[in-house]
Structures are given as structure tokens and as C-alpha cells.
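Researcher: Structure prediction, please.
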Amino acid sequence: MSSIQSAGSFTGQPESHIFAGFLFDLDGTIINTTDAVTKHWQKIGSELGVDPDTILRSSRGRRSIDTLRLYDPSKANWEYVRHIESQISQKYGSSASETAGARALLMSLEEANSTPPWAVVTSCTRGLLTGWLQLMALPSPPVAVAAEDVAVGKPDPSCYRLGRQRIGLGEGEGPRVLVFEDAPAGVKAGKAAGCLFLGLATTHAVDALREAGADWVVEDLRGVKFEGKGEGGWMISMEKMWVEEMKDADEG
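Model: Predicted structure follows.
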């Protein structure tokens, strides 16, 4: 008896696509903050009397205010959240790093003769967003959507809907907006906001990103290039996307 199993590799042939604008997640997409955020939540978990592993499992990709509601609602307020997040890049910045290819891609957007609409949409506070970009000396987006800007975090689509609005491309069938995102919850949020998705397999498995609705999946941003103005929008080229390979597998 045989069945079909899927496997694959990052060997996709180069493709080019036209989009009206771009939205970027931050953690795991532009900057790899996993180790820094892990140390942060281990400290907060100890202060709250919550097992660090438990709080880490529930915090990934979630706004701090939403995580705190699960364990200590008295601390789920913006004053406290801004306070604890203001210290992350200062205390644990040495544990963070750029995602491969992120700097080159953002610089090409910033330095374009005609700048395309783009923004960062993140679950962290505006202060932490600024702190990370300054620490890494990375380009700042023309506009941003931070944790304080929406009532509900990912996977609710509010953040990406607001991101579209802030770059002048409201939700609808017309404008093709590409989102760069590493987390399945973020992919689901953006798909519900009518966006197309380039998933980064930096923090989650390829299967999880594909199941969430990612249109393409890459290992990082090294193979993604901004090519400038194209007919009807802005051109992005990509290579080494995930390609599934189907093979027969014998069963006992």
C-alpha cells in the first residue's frame, strides 16, 4: 500500500511580481529577537511567579498586553507594558540580530527614486519598535502600526487593515499588498485583511506557514529584491522559494 508524502526544499526558480505596497512584520522578519525576548519573558515570568516556559509558549507573536492578561490582568495596561518593553533592546540587544537580507531590502526601498508605500506592522509597542531599529541602525518606515494602535492583536486582522489604510491602500480586491511575515498568526491576520503573503521560515515550520495561507515561503530575505517601479505598481523579485516535492512512500 502506498501514500503520498510531501517534502521539499528552498530551490524555487526566480519569479517577479507587481504589488501596490508592502507591509513588514518586525520580530522574526526584519530582526531576529527570539533570544532577547526569551530572556525578557523569563525575567517577567519569574517576577509574576509564572513558569517561564509556560509564559514563553503563549507569548510568541502576541502583544505583551494580551500575554499579561492571561497571567496578571492588573499589569495588562499600557503604562506597565511600555515600561517593560522600553528595557528590552537596552538590556538584551546583544542577543538580537538582523534577519539575513533585511537591511539590503529595506535600504533599497528607502533609497528608491520613487519610494513605494511601505510600513511596519508589529505586535510590539512603538517605543520598542523605535528602539530596535535605532539599535540596529535600520531604515525607519514612513508609517507604522504598533501594539497600541489596535484593540486586538494578531491573528485579528485589525493591524494589517490599519497598515493598508496608513499606506493609502485600503482593503479590497484592487490593490495587491504584499506582507512579509514569519508567524502563522500574522499570516492569518493579513490574509483576512486581503493581503498576499511572503512567509519567512525563520521561527516556524514551512508547513505551518503554508497551512496559514502563505503564498510563498522563503528561508530568509537574501533572495528577495526590490526592483523598482513596474507597470501598474512596484516589482519584487524572489528566488529560492520553498518548492514541494511529491513522492511515493510505501506503507507496511
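Model: Residues 8 and 244 are 4 Å apart (CA to CA).
Researcher: Thanks, that helps.
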